[in-house]
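User: As part of a screening pipeline, I want to sanity-check one entry by hand. Below is the sequence and the SMILES for zinc ion. Please return the complex as structure tokens so I can compare it with the automated output.
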Amino acid sequence: MQPIHFASVLLLGTSLALAQNATSSSTAPTEPKAPKSFDLTAIDKTADPCTDFYQYACGNWRKNNPIPGDQSRWGRFNELSERNRYLLYLDLKKAADSPQSPLQKQYGDFYAACMNSDLADQLGDKPIEPLLKHIDSFNDKKQLAGLLAAAQSHLGSSVFFNIGSEQDQKDSTQQIAGTYQSGLSLPDRDYYLEDNERMTKIRSQYKEYVTGIFKLIGDSDDKAAAEAKSVLEIETLLAKGSTPRVDLRDPDKVYHITAVSDLKTLAPDFDWNAYLTGVHIPTVKSLNVATPGFFKSFNEVIDGQSLDAIKSYLRFHTVNRSAPWLSKPFVDANFDFFQKTLQGQPEQTARWKRCTRLTDGALGEAVGQDWVKENFPPAAKDNMEKLVAALRKALAEDIQSLPWMTADTRKQAEAKLDAFRQKIGYPEKWRDYSKLEVKRDDLLGNLHRSQAFEADYDLDKIGKPVDEKEWGMTPPTVNAYYNPSQNDINFPAGILQPPFYDFSKDPAVNFGGIGVVIGHEMTHGFDDEGSKYDGQGNVKEWWTSADRTAFDKKTDCEVQEYGNFSPVEGVKLNGKLTLGENTADNGGIQIAYKALLSTLAQQGKSLDDKIDGYTGSQRFFIAFAQVWCENRTDQVSRIAAKVDPHSPGRFRTNGTVQNIDEFGKAFGCRQGQPMMPASACRVW
Ligand SMILES: [Zn+2]
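Assistant: Here is the complex for your manual check:
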């Protein structure tokens, strides 16, 4: 349950971390085509690469690949994710039909239970009836702590706040307890607080959805409307107390070690001792209260809202969280609001896709064992290790040659780079799921037991040494991450395929694809957030103050540059929210290009040699850009501008190539053209 801001990922999931995708559709599984790396047919030759490189590299791909009905964003990442999901589905289906091992029986049953939509339709809201009855029996606000502790298994972090283990950011060898703001359903606090026509409309649509959910569990129209009003009021109070996303990226702002005995000063009306005992947290004297302001708002809710209002909030979240897996009316309502209205996705996602994702989430390291045997040859790992080594060397040279960094900081930066660890493909040691009970006819029960199993697994780490071998992503995931507390870079097997990585292609293509991804993750160790951590993963200032000032000035250039990009009319990107990712993209391309040069030099090859009519450097930049070819609904562009620390594909491409001299040279651009501005930003 590590909060997302602890690890810098390559991109956010396609669901934007909102509610799960929706319901059954008759779409039969078919094998998606394998994505291509360096796709000549994607290029729009009518566009001028020096004016709009994204249009040049991706124009035809974007024209020929409209967003499928069951998606709200469609890009090269999604092509590969869909393919991996299909291959995973094949394993799940086989295991569901004829399991060959106890592990296959377990994940096969989980998947089969999920696929049983007939049973779900028969049961209606029965699977959550006992949970709703439990909330109904709550008749004194003093019982809230006990109730929340008991609800952990089915509500997880969706009500009020989140509790879990985390690495102590001042002593990265230790796992401590931490607690965070949560409890909202809309994508960000701004959705509750901004006073404009668009947000007002979304709030009113949300209120209709909440009302509809109460009616589905049998409440009268009047009662449902009153309950929905309470839910909105409570979530708005929580939103007011929530720390904005930009501040959540600052390690100093989310570290407040607090004695357990002092929790009552933050939220005096909540029985913390009963709660901590109830969630079976190992005995601790203190914990990190990452967002203290939020807990004051939480207390205002307990203090100022009626018992009935709090019960309405809990009832809604209990149903909402389960809705995608209940009977059709619940599934449809949930889809209509979260996917269709909020994200502009017209069609429901096929059930086999949703169930594959759900099983990967619950038993990812079980089915992943079989998946990598079939889909991740050992040679891929060896090749990847060579690529990572080339990138490490290039970053070391980059640090050596930075004109703005002085010797003292340089030495520390080198030490941090030396301490980098890397994980490639899949875990050395797989997780043990033997204690997770899975029943073939109990979808919601499986889900709740799995959530409880995860919560126990997470809380059990508190007070124990950190397991450096643990993974934060499952093997088929198309993504990568850097974890500053572990100072490690991680590349799941799922991403080590075209369009990122294609062993049949020349080095220019692979360095432009996976090479930039590796460089991106490494640069996270030195972005505005990662640079506050040392090589051991501790938050510690290792920069001289003059170098820190120089660094801040350099990164301010990127804040300005990206803050002026507009993904959709009337919306600008948030230059501060996206700073870490933009820095990583810009540093990543610099060092990947250097690594390509030295690799070609070793092989006695020249960048000027042409393949398919393009020089090596042109191929490098086209391969880089083509990773980011995508189409998005306007709704997704708007949500992403608020919540996604990554810039959209267009600006990840154009924003980055504008800042690297070699791009202009490769395409013969003139200074002053859009892709070769006079004032380029350069940090790493
Ligand atoms: Zn990243």
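Points to compare against the pipeline: Residues 1-5, 14-25 have pLDDT under 50 and may be disordered. The two ends are 32 Å apart (CA to CA).
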